Amino acid sequence: MASAETAAEHERILREIESTDTNCIGPTLRSVYDGQEHGLFMDKLEGRIRNHDREIEKMCNHHFQGFVDSITELLKVRGEAQKLKCQVTETNQKLQNDGKEVCLLTSMDELRQCRLQQRNIATTIDKLTHCLPGTNISPSICAIISDPAVFSPRYYPALRTLEQLEESCLPQAGSYRFCGIMSENIPRLRTHIRDVSMSDLKDFLESIRKHSDKIGETAMKQVSLLFMPEESKNTVMCLSLTHIILQIPGAQDLVDFSPVYRCLHIYTVLGARDTFENYYRKQRRKQARLVLQPHSNMHETLEGYRRYFNQIVGFFVVEDHILHTTQGLVNRAYVEELWELALSKTIAALRTHSSYCTDPDLILDLKNLIVLFADTLQGYGFPVNQLFDMLLEMRDQYGEILLKKWNQSFRQILDQDNYSPIPVASPEEYQRIAGQFPFQDPELDKMPFPKKLPFSEFVPKVYSQLKEFIYACLKYSEDLHLSSTEIDDMIRKSTNLLLTRTLSHCLQYAIKKKNVGLAELVQIIINTTHLEQSCHYLEEFISNITNVPPDTINATKLYGTSTFKDARHAAEEEIYTNLNQKIDQFLQLADYDWTAAQGGAQASDYLSDLIAFLCSTFAVFTHLPGKVAQTACMSACKHLSTSLLQLLLEGDVRQVSMGALQQFNVDVKECERFARAGPVPGFQGDTLLLAFIDLRQLLDLFTQWDWSTYLADYGRPTCKYLRVNPQTALTLLEKMKDTSRKNNMFAQFRKNERDKQKLIDTVVKQLRNLIATNQA
Questions:
Q1: In what residue span(s) does the Exocyst complex subunit EXOC6/Sec15 C-terminal domain sit (predicted)?
Q2: How many CA atoms lie within 13 A of 718 on its CB side?
Q3: Spatial CB neighbours of 437, under 8 Å, sequence gap ≥ 6
Q4: Strand, helix or coil at 652?
């Protein structure tokens, strides 16, 4: 048995024999004789001939019975004419033989009759000769119409044949009845051919609607191969455009355009080209609207966008093919009108659906797909600038999504960090960290392993994330037809947003969150200091990947320095606040006996614990910049001094004895000893002692009872108690006056106590006068 492939080949040859003119059948027959299974083909050919003979006979009997009757009559006449011719020949011979014997008149009469018959015969032959072309053409027309599936490619030749029959053959044949029947059938045959060709066109339109996705996919694949990266080009041996086109089928290979060409020719011949053009364009506009309507869930996956783009590209590839292979069926204005409609609807759909996307990788893939979509259509001559403008709009959305993603990354890094210097046990580990973060410290390099880096893990991790963000911005800017300067500016602005908004907020979050300790705040200051020092490396990194020098005019500068500086200042303020809160917590433990008769020789327990805490805290500040440590120490001492003074003057303390004041003085001396010891290096002389100068002068005034000096020198720049405010002195003195009055019944027996009480009353009066004078 013949294989399916051989049968298919025989079928193709038979169709070619059926649809090819006799003059061009030689190559087809040669392929038969050159091939195998010659006998099998001849059997199949005989079977096909018998089938056609039966079909022709059936259709001719069905549609042209009257014509057949007329032909039969003609054939009968032809037979009679032949007989008549034979009779004329015999008569002529007889006349020749018998002419001599008849009279002249009789011979002439018979001769005239024979001449008349001879002329009639010639006329009949001539008429039959003119009728024969029509009788030969009609069966072929019947066969074409009877089997549209086989003979559809020959509709146009059939129309030409009908035209020849109507304009030439039938007029020459004369006004016979069969000619009238044939003339009446010609319009019906034309209508039938037109309707069948229109049916083929509808099938074609349905076919290209179904194949638009595949056509578009193929066209975009061709463009993707043309614009593939260098490494991919090497893998395919740098294929030329010709090779790519040969490897990947085009629209004409996926769709048979012959129905539209035939229908166009048929309608042109029938004088209805405008009708055909209007119908085709109307149907294609309807299909365009369907193609441009995206699915409601298109934004969920990249494949949804890909199918949408494939259908649009496939639609316009078909229209471009029709534009260049037909004369006027569609024109450039019509195609451009459709493209303007498609462009506006596509951009609107992309804006709507892309707004739902929260995945930066999907946005990036979508951007690459839109670029491929635009490049493909641009290759067919369609303007795509609006698509690239829309991609620039999407860049802002992509940047916002990146910022949200990096916000989570930064938060995770900060939450997981241990805020401790990184221990390094080996040179390999040191090089690994140095590869992540540009850190140079010659002194640390000289130290033996194991050793510690000054910053914690979040420094190299944050720096790596900054570089990853820059790479992500660069990926989006590729293939957008932007200059290097524009790309550099875009990356720098996006990075600035990351620094000033996202990273800054994350650092503020880490600084302000509850339960953050002083050690963590100190480490944050150290970390931000190193990140600030690395900002110029980020500048160089961006310049290297964009090929734009950092000193270019109007180049956007990174705000990393200010970002890390602000974070460091916030951490410093938080340290000051935290220290003050710790001091307040210790002060809440103070339990003075304000009526004690005698003071102790040692500092209060709460103050000793506070001083120990401050010493251990400032010991951690060794890695901080000197100014920060000094400011923190001075702030803590000032706050301690102010808080102690408020503790002494607060309203709840109504009486203060000299013994309590002496104990308070011992505590202040302990604070001064702490300040004099220099808990933080860098203070000049007794600068730190100045934090307690107000307390010291106030306590000296009361413990030495030096009111005469105070009142005499008040207001002078050289006053010994320049820092003592009269109101403060009055408040404390009144508390001591109340204590004296309480013990008045015993004091009246002692002259010194009576004198002291009088002095207190006198000083109180003078202080009030002094305050009144100052207020005036």
A1: 386-735
A2: 0
A3: 459, 460, 463, 464, 530, 534
A4: coil
In three-state secondary structure terms, 423 is: strand
Identity of the amino acid at 294: P
pLDDT in tens, 299-358: 888 898 999 999 999 999 999 988 888 888 888 999 999 999 999 999 999 999 888 888
Q: Kindly report, residue by residue over 247-298, the tens digit of the pLDDT.
A: 745 566 777 888 888 888 888 877 888 888 898 899 999 988 998 888 888 8
Whats the size of the chain, residue-wise?
Answer: 776
Q: How many CB atoms lie within 10 A of CB 642?
A: 16
- Residue 750 confidence (pLDDT): 59
Per DSSP, helices labelled H in 355-440 are 360-379, 385-416, 427-436
Element of type H or E holding 451: strand 451-452
Q: What b/e readout covers 68-97, taking b as 16+ CB neighbours within 10 angstroms?
A: eebbeebeeeeeebeebeeebeebeeebee
**Tokens encoding 662:** 């002496």
**Using the 8-state DSSP alphabet, how is residue 500 labeled?**
I
Q: DSSP 3-state helix, strand, coil percentages of the chain (rounded to 5)?
A: 80, 0, 20
d(CA 665, CA 28): 125
Those residues with Cβ within 8 angstroms of residue 362's Cβ, 6 or more apart along the chain or in another chain: 302
CB 339 within 8 A of CB 320: no
pTM above the 0.70 mark? no
Return the pLDDT at 150: 39
Which residues, including other chains, have CB under 8 Å from residue 669's CB and lie 6 or more apart? 603
CB 320 within 8 Å of CB 335: yes
607 half-sphere exposure, CB direction, 13 A CA radius: 23
DSSP 56-72: HHHHHHHH-HHHHHHHH
Which one-letter amino acid corresponds to residue 615?
A: C
Please name the amino acid found at residue 227: F
Distance of CA 515 to the CA centre of its chain: 41
Span 652-671, pLDDT tens digits? 888 888 888 999 999 999 99
For the chain, helix (H) and strand (E) counts, in that order, are 34, 2
225-236 b/e with 16+ CB inside 10 Å = b? beeeeeeeeeee
DSSP states of 141-208 as a string?
HHHHHH-HHHHGGGHHHHHHHHHHIIIIIHHHH-S-HHHHHHHHHHHHHHHHHHHHHHHHHHHHHHHH
Compute the Cα dihedral for 606, 607, 612, 617 and give only its sign. Answer: positive
Encode pLDDT of 517-559 as tens digits: 888 888 888 898 888 888 889 888 999 998 888 777 667 788 8
Average pLDDT along the chain: 81
Tally of CB atoms within 10 A around 400: 14
* Peptide bond between residue 360 and the one before it cis (omega within 30 degrees of 0): no
Record the tokens describing residue 612, joined without a space: 């120990």
Alpha helices in 650-692 (DSSP H): 658-676
Element (H, E) at 566: helix 560-587
Q: What is the DSSP string of 122-137?
A: HHHHHHHHHHHHHHHH
CB 323 within 8 A of CB 335: yes
Contact present, 731 and 768 (Cβ < 8 Å): no
Distance in angstroms (rounded) separating the CA atoms of residues 699 and 692: 11
Q: Is 365 exposed, middle or buried (0-12, 13-18, 19+ CB in 10 A)?
A: middle
3-state secondary structure of 443: helix
Do residues 316 and 359 lie in contact, with contact meaning Cβ atoms separated by under 8 Å?
no
